Automatic annotation (TrEMBL):
UniProt KW keywords: ATP-binding, Nucleotide-binding, Transport
InterPro entries: AAA+_ATPase, ABC_transporter-like_ATP-bd, ABC_transporter-like_CS, P-loop_NTPase
Coiled coil: none
SMART domains cross-referenced by the UniProt entry: AAA
Organism: Psychroserpens luteus
Stated family: Belongs to the ABC transporter superfamily.
Matches recorded under PANTHER family: ABC TRANSPORTER, ATP-BINDING PROTEIN (PTHR43335)
Protein name: ABC transporter ATP-binding protein
Domain ABC transporter: start-end pairs: 6-236
Length: 305
């Protein structure tokens, strides 16, 4: 059986009596996975992370990390094996990366002096290590935050919305870094996001949370397999009503019209070429053909109230 790095059982928490913010949560993060924790805003991702790190006190249930139950006695021992980046890292703006890392290292136990250069290398900030943080981009700050969380060589890294606010370049750099850490060092990574596309690209496992309840938990491959095999298309044409009747005359099913778009469901990609050929032969101008992301639809249907 696969080893679980994080395992919560019947975890319950509420900020106040008016509502249950986390309800019977069973979070299961396998060793060596990149686990994406996905849910809309306010679904309970940050609260769960705070419960895992002992920053909030649960009402009931248990939190087991590395096979050990989290409590006052085991807290420090467990947290020594965890690195976390939650919200924006707190950095000293007027100091450079090396000094920031030195200060952070002083708060931790037994960090070897060469570890600072090692983590800078891992997050690809060696060339910028002497620059002051006020000259850093948000992406560089996030990577330095990650470097700080790597100082103690953690077996588990927890990242709360690590790509929030980053530009496309910053997002790609962070994504690559996460995958490299997982592949090179076997680090288990827990990453929260409200973006399915982010999780789909980076993660091996996924847990979907809504209103504090886990509503789906499996591998990303299983989630993709459950989306169904039909392909949904939107085709924008100049004469939508004519195009609709041409295709209906061909006995095509699953066609409808929304504004100037034909919405069609086909069984395979070859059918798409066939449809385009028929429409072009009838002098229908095609402006765009887009394939809908079925996974996105599945996520929405899972998370909609
Ligand atoms: N300090 C707090 N006091 C009271 N309620 C809170 C507090 N922090 C969060 N909540 C509530 O708890 C629920 C879960 O919030 P949480 O921040 O964990 O969600 P989230 O999934 O991380 O959302 P986001 O993506 O917006 O960060 C929400 O209903 C939120 O309003």
């Amino acid at each position: 059986m696969e080893q679980l790095i994080v395992n919560t059982q019947n975890l319950n928490f509420s900020y106040n009596k008016t509502k249950q913010d986390i309800e019977n949560l069973e979070l299961k993060i396998p060793k060596g996975s990149i686990y994406g924790f996905l849910g809309p805003n306010g679904s309970g991702k940050s609260t769960t992370i705070r419960l895992l790190l002992g920053l909030l006190k649960k009402n009931s249930g248990s939190v087991v990390l590395f096979g050990e139950t989290f409590n006052n006695k085991t807290r420090l021992k467990i947290l020594n094996r965890v690195g976390a980046l939650i919200e924006n890292p707190s950095l000293y703006d007027h100091l450079n990366a090396v000094d920031n890392l030195r200060i952070a290292a002083n708060y931790r136990q037994n960090i070897a002096s060469n570890r600072i250069n090692e983590v800078l290398e891992v997050v690809k900030l060696t060339d910028a290590k002497n620059k002051r943080i006020k000259e850093y981009s948000l992406g560089m700050k996030q990577r330095l935050g990650l470097a700080i969380s790597l100082l103690s060589n953690p077996e588990l890294i927890i990242l709360d919305e690590p790509t929030n606010g980053l530009d496309p370049k910053g997002i790609i750099e962070m994504r690559t870094l996460i995958k490299d850490l997982n592949e090179t060092y076997g680090t288990t990574i827990f990453i929260s996001s409200h973006l399915l596309s982010e999780i789909e690209r980076t993660c091996t496992h996924v847990g979907i949370i809504r209103n504090g309840k886990m509503i789906y938990q499996d591998t990303v491959a299983s989630l993709k397999a459950s989306k169904g095999s039909n392909i949904k298309l939107d085709i924008e044409v100049d004469k939508p009503i004519e195009a609709l009747s041409i295709l209906r005359n061909l006995k095509m099913e699953n066609i409808s019209l929304l504004d100037d778009f034909l919405q069609i469901e086909v069984k395979n990609k070859e059918e798409i070429t066939g449809i385009i050929d028929v429409l072009r032969a009838e002098k229908i101008n095609i402006y765009q053909v887009s394939i809908k992301n079925n996974l996105e639809e599945l996520f929405l249907s899972l998370t909609e109230n």
